[in-house]
Amino acid sequence: MKTTPTILLLGAGRSATYFIDYLAKVVQKNGWRFIIAENNASIVYQKAMQYPHLEVVQLNTSDTEQTFAWIKQTDVVVSLLPPSLHSSIAHMCLEAQRHLLTASYLPAEIQHLDSKVQEKGLLFLYEMGLDPGIDHLSAMQMIDKIKKQSGEILSFASFCGGLIAPEYIAGNPWGYKFTWNPQNVVLAGQGGIAQYKEQNKVRYVPYQQLFKRIQPIYFENLGEYEAYYNRNSLLYTKAYGLQNCSTIIRGTIRMKGFCEAWHALIQIGLTDHTLLIENVNQLTYRQFLESFFPPSTLPWQERLAKYLDLPLNHPTIQKILWLGLHEDEPIPLTQGTPAQILQTRLEQKWQLQPQDKDLILMQHQITYKQENKQHQVIAELMLKGENQVFTAMAKTVGLPLALAAELLLENKIQTRGVKIPCFAEIYENILPLLAKHGIEFQEKSLTKQRLSEID
Amino acid sequence: MKTTPTILLLGAGRSATYFIDYLAKVVQKNGWRFIIAENNASIVYQKAMQYPHLEVVQLNTSDTEQTFAWIKQTDVVVSLLPPSLHSSIAHMCLEAQRHLLTASYLPAEIQHLDSKVQEKGLLFLYEMGLDPGIDHLSAMQMIDKIKKQSGEILSFASFCGGLIAPEYIAGNPWGYKFTWNPQNVVLAGQGGIAQYKEQNKVRYVPYQQLFKRIQPIYFENLGEYEAYYNRNSLLYTKAYGLQNCSTIIRGTIRMKGFCEAWHALIQIGLTDHTLLIENVNQLTYRQFLESFFPPSTLPWQERLAKYLDLPLNHPTIQKILWLGLHEDEPIPLTQGTPAQILQTRLEQKWQLQPQDKDLILMQHQITYKQENKQHQVIAELMLKGENQVFTAMAKTVGLPLALAAELLLENKIQTRGVKIPCFAEIYENILPLLAKHGIEFQEKSLTKQRLSEID
According to the model, what pLDDT value does residue B43 have? Predict the structure, then answer.
């Protein structure tokens, strides 16, 4: 007896809007089932209200018995839960023999399940969002194309950022608002020393240099942005087939000036996540800030300038003052680390407004040798969101997952095992579909002549 | 039947020389037993050769059965083992009902054993070395004396450093050599954000500021040194009875200019202890250093100056070049973190030579109000070592422990429970004995008039 093809979504937070929206239509058309399981089910009722055929269930995944029962009822499990919860979900999917799709980074312990997952005819597809996700799909397509034409890749650099469209940042000197998990933004770079490769040598960038040792990046019609090194760029050397490539860089894009000011917050100590401070609700932001400085009676603008060794009107000073950390407002936390306290303030100041449009930027820069000539190809993605809910971030994270789930149920993806989307079958199928939804790269190629001109 | 009073020393490394030397004579005079248990027993045979009545045994403390058997034979256990091994030793001492003395920091989990230790009539005395140790003894004596005279303590600052006598640092621009565990020096400050109190406010100093936000400290006849904040200065607020004191600072002393150069090593990333690098023996120090910099063909002096934003001939640049991290010598490690690799080089460059004399400096600064006048009292300890083996470090760490063991066996210390040496009985007994061995503080007092003159 053939049962109805069923998709189970675990977790329906910020980045689930497009995923739900797209699959709701697909399952209706195909007569499939779509179950959305979320601990805070009320947020889903809103998102799913116009789709009465969706099944919304309240589920706390720490209730493993109930979670397993739901997984058992489905064909494809998609998890948008926090990465820390994925390990138990993956093991349940293996036992229940269900496919698993997620946008989270692939941990080594799951990679080790590869042969077991293959044996059972399953696909565990990790890193299937934006970054990681669309970056893999698009980069691999470029790399494979160059190799097929006997090109030898000399350098590979890939940048991505979840930003705000320039016309919506007026009055916000940071040029940044939260479009995904704020904690990840505040703790960026604390997972370990960043690594990349340049001139055939592995290079390390410690946290205290990360937002200082930045590089400019240009987008046509938008202008100059900047990028900091993103984690360990070398993790994908083998997956991308870049073992002979002398430069490998992955970076995160921010508006010009952001990194220098964030570097100042790090220098002050405000991003520390090791010290738990108690009774924080008895402090104001000013008292919190004060504790990172030697005593002084100077106004805060002067104190900051002096401590950071910057001119009084430096844009970094203006950015920090704009956050109002020197104001006597109570901190809405009972206890927290400096990073968590900073985050409460940033969430007030960097909140996406209802009509704000976010902006996803991605750029791959590849130089390669072909027939004794050096070439460069640059591929760019620029995508604006629609508003506070239908963000470009939610679209670029949710749509690759939704499309992969659809293709799996249609048997259009045959690859099995524990994977990240670095194989031809996935980018050949997904990229054209993403393009139909406006997620499309523009490529420009330069020959060596042209290169030397712009150097 | 009364058995022979017996002392067991666990671990006989660098700081055990004075301890063994002193107690060897005491036990001979008193007809006691003294057992030295060490995993690497050969290092003890050298130290104990002239004392045939000492019992030296080979013991690996991971062999808990044998360790327990040795503990059971003794009255007082003194541990100079690494702190990580102390937890199991403490529990064995509790079960065997034996006193325990150590120079290590008192962990919270041992503090919790206090009532059990008291019930059994035992003393577990932690932090009984130099710093922590002699700092507690001497500070508590000063604090109690001021309080007895109805003085109200306004500020308390205490500094200590294990240095090298000025006449033995010629040619070493860092003015520093290792006289204790090199790893502790390399990782200093990485245990968590430093904390102190000033103007009645808790102040935090993150690692990236620790060696920058330093303060000068003067010693008569020696001149100016500098100090960085030492861990959490507020841990001793209650033990010292300083709850109403508006300023509490503990600092570590270094030669002038050391901290700025160490700060540069931190900025570069060379003290990182999170990244394990494999096959390090295939690298030279230059290749290791290179990996922390962007590519460049400039000479290293210029690269360092540019990267650190310092003049070409800045003393910090000279200090780093003197370490020879830019030289093409192989690294004597198969794998290691940047901190461990740096340590191998420092151990070559900062090695104590046979005739070198080390220098212990300690200074307490207390201001207090008495009869409506403000007073300041400064107490200083300056102690030079004799040579590479009989260092002032070994003396100031070992002698307080040896004296405490002696006094315990003579029933001259009645205090029981889990303690650090912040109680009158211990400093009243120990400080005069330390003075007899040349470990003596000089005090000078200033009244407010005098204070305002030197301000």
Answer: 79
Same domain, B48 and B172: no
* Per-residue pLDDT reduced to its tens digit, B12-67: 887 898 999 999 999 999 999 999 999 988 878 777 778 888 999 999 999 999 99
Residues of chain B contacting A269 with CB distance shorter than 8 Å: 193, 204-206, 208-209
Distance from C-alpha of A190 to C-alpha of A188, rounded to nearest angstrom: 6
**Which of B155, B198, B209 to probe the A interface (max A CBs under 10 A)?**
B209
| Domain with B41 in it | 6-102
- Select the residue of A193, A266, A338 nearest B208 (Cβ to Cβ): A266
Q: Does any domain span residue A337?
A: no
The torsion region of residue A26 among left (phi > 0), alpha (psi -120 to 50) and beta comes to: alpha
Q: Which residues of A touch B204 (CB under 8 A)?
A: 269, 272, 275, 291-292, 338
In a domain, B125, yes or no: no
Of A193, A213, A291, the CB nearest to B274: A193
pLDDT for residue A453: 47
Tell me: the pLDDT tens digits for A166-197?
Answer: 999 999 999 999 998 899 999 999 999 999 99
Q: What is the mean pLDDT of residues A7-27?
A: 92
Which of B200, B203, B208, B308 would best serve as a mutation to test chain A binding (most A beta carbons within 10 A)?
Answer: B208
Is A367 within the bounds of a domain? yes
Which residues of A touch chain B, with CB atoms under 8 Å apart? 192-193, 198-199, 201-206, 208-209, 213, 266-269, 272, 274-275, 287, 290-295, 338
Would you list the DSSP string of B336-372?
Answer: B-HHHHHHHHHHHHSPPPTT--EEEEEEEEEEEEETT
Q: Enumerate helices (H) and strands (E) in chain B, giving the number of each.
A: 17, 16
pTM of the model as a whole: 0.93
B50 & B148 share domain: no
What angle do the packed helices A300-308 and A258-268 form, to 10 degrees? 90
Asked whether the ipTM of the predicted complex exceeds the cut of 0.85, the reply is: yes
> Rounded to 10 degrees, what is the CA torsion of B63, B64, B68, B71?
70
For the segment A42-71, what is each residue's pLDDT rounded down to a tens digit? Answer: 878 777 778 888 999 999 999 999 999 999
> Residue B397 pLDDT more than 60?
yes
Question: Is residue A145 located within the same domain as residue A254?
Answer: yes
How many domains does chain A contain in total?
2
**Which of residues A47, A81, A102 is at a domain's end?**
A102
Sole residue written with tokens 């307080």: B400
Residues B40 and B164 in one domain: no
One domain, residues B51 and B143: no
* Cα B114 to Cα B118: distance, rounded to the nearest angstrom: 6
B199, B204, B208: residue with CB nearest A208: B208
Q: What is the mean pLDDT of chain A?
A: 94
pLDDT of A449 higher than 60: no
Give the whole-angstrom CA distance, residue B218 versus residue B233. Answer: 20
CATH number at residue B96: 3.40.50.720
Cβ–Cβ gap B269/A203 under 8 Å? no
Query: What residue in A sits closest to B201 (Cα-Cα)?
Result: A291
| Chain A residue with minimum CA distance to B269 | A206
Nearest to B204 among A192, A269, A295 (CB): A269
Residue of chain B minimizing CA distance to A209? B267
Structure tokens at B95: 């079960």
A contact test, residue of B155, B190, B193, B247 with most A CBs within 10 A: B193
Q: What is the pLDDT of residues A228-276, one digit of tens each?
A: 999 999 999 999 999 999 999 999 999 999 999 999 999 999 999 999 9
Closest-CA distance, B192 to chain A, in angstroms, reads: 7
Let me know if residue B126 belongs to a domain: no
Please compute the mean of the pLDDT values over residues A120-146 and round it to a whole number: 97
CA distances from B366 to B135, B264, B412, B441, B453 (A): 13, 32, 30, 14, 17
pLDDT at B228 over 50: yes
Burial class (CB in 10 A: 0-12, 13-18, 19+), A318: middle
Smallest CA–CA distance, residue B340 to chain A, in Å, is: 15
